[in-house]
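Cross-check.
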Amino acid sequence: MAKALVKKVAIDIGINDRDRKKIADGLSGLLADSYTLYLMTHNFHWNVTGPQFNSLHAMFMAQYTEQWAALDIIAERIRSLGFPAPGTYKEFVKLASIKEVEGVPNATQMIHHLLAAQEATARTARKLFPVVDAANDQPTADVLTQRIDLHEKTAWMLRSLVSE
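Predicted model, tokenized:
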């Protein structure tokens, strides 16, 4: 079968190619962390047990539902910058700063894992700000600001569950 010819159209959005690539690479790491966090949260939603079952089951569902929507926003920003978004487990494992949890932890351990993952995702987003600011990339800065705000608030709520 003949290979289809794809004509590459130049991108001129006021951000040079090198900076767009740096931003897309940073967003790819954020997408990987976000997907890993999504999967962890959904897994814990399915598998949580104990006296806090009802409240944690509902909270985890709200968290993974929000996280799922964020994946599209991040991936589409990468595409807007002219680069392919990572989309395989292999790529996500390579790019993510969050490690998978093995086995089924108890409810308190789940909260601690999610807290660490929320904070890690906020750090990943925050690390990208210097290059985004230098490139004058307000749309990406807006995405990062919203994600950091959400992850920090969710971390606070999780931290409150395990604080004495």
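The mean pLDDT is 94. The two ends are 65 Å apart (CA to CA). Passed to J.P. for a second look.
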